[in-house]
Write a structure and sequence with these properties.
CATH topology of the largest domain: 60s Ribosomal Protein L30, Chain: A
CATH class of the largest domain: Alpha Beta
Number of helices: 5
Distance between the termini: 72 Å
Number of domains: 2
Length: 179
């Protein structure tokens, strides 16, 4: 075959491959007399090897733990190993769902002064948020607040343990406890 014919065939094959990649069909290239026509084909697509992301990946990600409350001892903002493990599972969910945000709200029982309870509830919320950040949750995805005894109500001593808590509430349209 002569060089001009080979050059024309190569140019036509490249152009046809470009059209095929955009969804156009490749035309047949006229062949010189006595030779079969050449039809350019698009290369086969490569198998996808990078990890999935987006909605499909979020569906495969873990569900948040069913427990969305962390309880505390009287006057304490310390977390034990079991509570840290629970918060690690919440962090795993949050890392897998990068658009989810969570409100971390601390509470206190009505014993003590209002100012002291407000400070204690904030320290509790910050302790919980710190563990979530340690496990890779960005600080900007956490809304951290302490309400003190504001939500304690008129409950008696039997309810105080339930009032010494931090609640986690997901703000991506998914609220724990409403499955």
């Amino acid at each position: 075959m002569s060089q001009p014919v080979v050059a024309v065939l190569a140019l036509a094959a490249v152009a046809a491959a470009g059209c095929a990649a955009r969804g156009h069909h490749a035309p047949s290239v006229p062949a010189p007399a006595g030779e079969p026509p050449v039809t350019a084909r698009a290369p086969e697509p490569l198998a996808r090897t990078e990890p999935e992301s987006g909605p499909a990946a979020a569906q495969a990600a873990p569900e948040p733990p069913a427990t969305s409350t962390v309880h505390f001892a009287p006057g304490s903002a310390e977390l034990d190993a079991e509570q840290r493990a629970l918060l690690a599972r919440h962090a795993e969910y949050l890392v897998a769902h990068p658009h989810a945000m969570v409100a971390v709200t601390g509470h206190a029982d009505p014993r003590g002064s209002a100012a002291a309870n407000l400070e204690l509830s904030r320290r509790r919320a910050e302790a919980v948020a710190a563990v979530l950040r340690e496990h890779g949750v960005e600080a900007g995805r956490l809304i951290v607040d302490g309400l003190g005894e504001a939500t304690a109500g008129e409950a008696g001593a039997g309810q105080w343990a339930q009032q010494r808590r931090v609640d986690l509430e997901y703000l991506d349209g998914y609220r724990l406890g409403e499955r």
